[in-house]
Amino acid sequence: MAGGQAAGRRPIPIVGLWRALGLTLASAVVWGVAHVAAGRRAVGFTLMAVLALLVAGSATLVLAFQDTMKQLVVQNTWLNVIIAAILALAVTWAAIVIWSYQVVRPPGLPAAMRVASTTLVVVLSVLICTPFVYAANTTYVLRDTLSKIFPGDDHTGPKIDAADPWKNMPRFNVLLMGGDGGKDRKGIRTDSMTVASIDTKTGNTVLISLPRNLQYFQMPARLRSIWPNGYRPVNATLGYDGMLNSVYLSGEKNPSLVPGFKQGQRGSHLLEEVIGNLIGMKINYYVLVNLDGFKDIVNAMGGVKVHIEKALPIGGEMVNGHYTKPPTGWLHAGTQHLNGEKALWYGRSRDADDDFHRMDRQKCLMKDIADQADPQKVVTHFEKLAKAATNTIYTNLPSTLLPPLIKLSGTVKGGSDITSLAFNPWKMQGFDPVSPNVALMRQLTTKSIADSENPHKPSPSPTTTVKKHKKKVKTGVTASPTASSGSGGSVSLKNVCG
């Protein structure tokens, strides 16, 4: 009798369960496999066709419309659409996996097996959703980062035409500043000041560097009642040492100098105005980089490879050519892969040479970082990079300019000429940082822009007057006419960086 009962029992469908789980796993890779196996061919092939269209469409967008996609992913509206689409795809994919299991699940499973198999399918669905959730979160971080960095106080800039953003802007001029300080920007000295002037049609770019120790220079007309004899400290309120790198501080500490702007914007706008007056150019926007946070960006990128011409000290203090405090280390000559801390010292060190060599190194460092930005590293370290950028970069660039700037940057990286104009007394006849000839600075800037716009037809060099006396400059070196090596025109950045 016992044997008869055993013979009458229904066998546990182990083989059928493993087959169902296998088909469910296959359906997680190729939609519709389980449905076709279950005889629901119409539904199964429809699911396969939908998946094929999704894959082909995504590949087409990535490969054929890269430039367009790059412009879309810096716009909040499209980022919201992308986030919603990613999450919808995740839910759809998980639902199809669960549906596939229900179609092929064998009947009559004992309760324990039914619970175990259902749990496995749910876990599989969660695993499938994980990369989509990560992608959606990364997109959200990108949107949040862009919103924080590019709020834009652009009411002083030219009016932007969305259909033709460069209509009223044949050249895009942006002041790039590097300074120390925390997020509240108190106490910042802008030791790095470069104007990037970009032709919005060709992408040809001129990088114009101004020395931090520029002194007694002519101020814009509206400020000459305060500084009638050139920029210098009038009192403890209006500045520190009277050099160009303290103009930012003067603006931040004195709202009356830059009316209409709030704390954190005044210094940058004042420096825009002052530098624009010196080189005879309207500066449209500014970007301020906190150099202490800059190292976090480099680290998030996995470091940067640079060519170092000679050994540079890390840390230490030098007075009159002698170390009063020895360096804590050295950057050795040759091609080196630098982490964030060492890259910062490569751009800041000046004890081994002077401010003017440092200006060249800073341009080369910017070029190296731009050239070596690896998309894979950017994606894998995106959250660290986004956090570092949010705490490091401050700008008044409006978010509406980001899409055309992305397009323009592709032109610049695609082979456009990048030239460098550095106001260096050793290489520029008639230029003295202690008492700069503003007319000469404007002439050389105009010439460099003209040469950039017509690279095959260089304009004639402006007439320069060489001063016959020697002046002691702030770096401890002596400017001399014999040190000049040319008229001071712009040169290719490739030549500057060797």
Automatic annotation (TrEMBL):
It comes from the Bacteria. Residues 475-485 have a biased composition (Low complexity). The chain crosses the membrane at residues 12-33, 45-65, 77-99, 111-134. InterPro entries: LytR/CpsA/Psr_CW_biosynth (IPR050922), LytR_CpsA_psr (IPR004474). Gene3D superfamilies: LCP protein (3.40.630.190). Residues 448-498 are annotated as: Disordered. The keyword Signal does not apply. NCBIfam families: lytR_cpsA_psr. This is Cell envelope-related transcriptional attenuator domain-containing protein. It comes from Actinoallomurus vinaceus.
